[in-house]
Amino acid sequence: MRSLSPKIVERFVREVRAQDVPPRPMTREEVVDSLRQYLGELADALEQGTTKDPCCAKTAAKHGGQRWHVGYDLRGLLVEYGILREAILTEIEATGEIPTAREFDRILQFLNAGLSDGAEELMKKTTLELERALAQAQLATEAREDVLSVVSHDLRGPLHVLYGSTKLLSEQVSAVQTPEVVRSTDRIERAVHNMDRLIGSLLDLARLKSGEMSIQPEDHSASELIRDAVESATPLAEARTIELKMSAVPQGMVRCDRARVLQVLANLIGNAIKFSPPEGTVTLGCSRDGAMWTFSVEDRGPGIPPDRQPLIFDRFWHGGHQRSGTGLGLSIARGLVELHGGRIWVDSQVGRGSTFNFTIPTS
Questions:
Q1: What's the DSSP call for residue 67?
Q2: Labelling 245: which of 45, 46, 85, 318 has CA 20 to 30 A away?
Q3: What is the pLDDT of residues 312-355, one digit of tens each?
């Protein structure tokens, strides 16, 4: 075995490169790494009649660490050990000497032990790297949310001053009635309203994250909640030539914070209108099942691919190339529904539309 080491190394390097195992171009010495030392330990083990020793374990673990460093994953390491096994057995057979069953078993046990030690080290380093990345991502997320919370509070005061000044300006120039002035003041007012909604969303998100968000549940008619939501969304629907429908709603009371439930419905309806084709239909419904009411908003838009459905309630997530909006609405909706003790989910088929559902406890 010891005399075969150079040929085994050559065959190993040739096959590893032929099968494109390395994840990036590697020098010959990077491919070989500690293989010569490892083969020497294998020869010692065969001579001594053992299958593993502490030195071998250290060599294999060190090799696993080196392979992680150059970008290998577990599959690459498994393929590499398979190549090494074939290289060893091929070179032994080329000498005309057939190993005994005991020797064959020792070789396989030695290689399996080495693979185990190398894989353990590779996975240990991979896990540590993932943990560091997750910790950094968590710190970045927390820092961003802290900044958003502080900035949102600081911006709202000046924004309200700007809004008041804009209203005053609009009243003062109303007598002028020049189209340019009217359009300009309208644009300013819309921008202020949009900014105010954005700041409100950021504050809601920060309060939900910190646990400072509270609700004031009272008994409300389910049908009135649906009617109020439809009435509020009608101007937006008409502007987009979308028909809003309300399915039959059973009589009964819902124990909820009215403003927050209407906020959830407004977000779902707004999304449904945004993604519906012209002349499309958005249908609101509500049904009761035991201790829960289920509210639904159905559209006939493009639908959501299955792989994206688990992501749509994440903060700052945007689907596909659609970048309008803040990416906060559905995350806030989920938080508000969960504050009520309910849950929210989507049923969607690509090309057929989506139905967003959420539950709220009965009175």
A1: H
A2: 318
A3: 888 766 665 454 556 788 999 999 999 999 999 999 999 999 99
Cα-to-chain-centroid distance, residue 303: 19
Token readout for 286 is 């509500």
Question: Rounded distance, CA 206 to CA 137, Å?
Answer: 17
Structure confidence by residue, pLDDT tens digits, 68-105: 888 888 888 889 999 999 999 898 888 887 777 888 88
**CB-facing half-sphere around the CA of 239: CA atoms within 13 A:** 8
| Residue 303 φ/ψ region, left for φ over 0, alpha for ψ in the -120 to 50 degree band, beta for the rest | left
Neighbours of 243 (CB within 10 A): 12
Exposure of 99 in the CB half-sphere (CA atoms within 13 A): 18
Write the DSSP assignment of 68-89 as a string of letters: HHTT--HHHHHHHHHHHHHHHH
How far is Cα 300 from Cα 302, in angstroms, rounded to an integer? Answer: 7
Domain of residue 23 covers: 2-135
Residues 70-103: b if buried by 16+ CB within 10 A, e if exposed? eebeeebbebbbebbbebbeebbeeeeeebeeee
Residue type, 302: P
Distances (CA, A) of 156 to 62, 72, 168, 329: 57, 51, 18, 19
State phi, psi for 244 to the nearest 5 degrees: -95, 125
Provide the residue count of the chain.
363
Identify whether residues 101 and 159 lie together within a single domain: no
- The Cα–Cα gap between 325 and 203 comes to 16
Among residues 199, 216, 202, which one has the least CA distance to residue 339?
216
Asked if 26 and 76 sit in the same domain, the reply is yes
Q: Going by C-beta distance under 8 Å and a sequence separation of 6 or more, which residues neighbour residue 265?
A: 225, 226, 229, 284, 295, 297
pLDDT at 45: 80
Answer whether 198's CB lies under 8 Å from 326's CB. yes
pLDDT in tens, 102-144: 888 888 888 888 888 888 888 888 888 878 877 887 777 666 6
How many of the other CB atoms lie within 10 Å of CB of 110?
A: 23
Q: Model-level pTM?
A: 0.54
Domain edge (last residue) among 84, 105, 135: 135
Number of independent structural domains in the chain: 3
Name the strand (E) or helix (H) holding 242: none
